[in-house]
Amino acid sequence: MAFFGFKDFDRLSEVDLDIYRFMTANVETVPYLRVRDIAQEAHVSNSSVMRFIHKLGYNSFPEFKLSFQTEHQTVQANNHQLGFITADNFPPDIYAKLELVADRLQQADSIIYCGMGSSAALAEYAARQTAAVGFNSFCVKDPFYPLVTQLKNTSNNLLVTFTVSGKTTELIEMLNNFVTNEDVTLVAVTADPTSPVALMSRYVLSYSTEQKRVEKYYDLTTQVPAMYLIEQLLSFARRLALAN
Known about the structure:
The chain is α/β, with parallel strands linked by helices. It contains 10 helices and 7 strands. It folds into 2 domains: 71 residues, Winged helix-like DNA-binding domain superfamily/Winged helix DNA-binding domain (Arc Repressor Mutant, subunit A, Orthogonal Bundle); 157 residues, 3-Layer(aba) Sandwich (Rossmann fold). The strands form 2 sheets. It has a 5-stranded parallel β-sheet. The longest helix is centred in the C-terminal third of the chain and has 20 residues. It is elongated.
């Protein structure tokens, strides 16, 4: 007994179909209408409305209205479920890669997170969370920051770059300074594992998501998959630290 899931249309007459079409076109108001209101709007008789309701399996009009409203609310809820990420957003070997990067993070003397735009906010969050669990980390949101000078005479650094496209010119130019530097290990967190930033990096934590832009310049691509990778990376790193 259901309205929205009804499929046995062969049982319905032309008059029944007129009533059905009216109801499906006015789902918000049907629960508040009387039999005669529906009959008038669908251009049928009151008795036709009741015969239609009985064909659907309801014993009375009040029973139908209550069921109709409940079904409609359920359909709305199902259509607006929060489904940000699934396993399909990541490559099959993502956890193996996270383990490798977590091990490298746990051994590093310093961890630098960098990014631009919304990715900069991710980098800042990652740096704060990494520091909170006991690792030496900081964030670089300015690609022109003198990072080369700061890392001079240091070793065992991990540089993690957040970039959706992996094609941002300023980031590529900054990372170029460290591609052949044995004291800096590059990690890319990106939606494009074939991008320049990914190809420059030793480790790539990739994800797939629809990239969205408004008026060409404003990036509205979700950062939820990248945030998930941050949380998993830190979880793995904490576990390794405790084991040691």
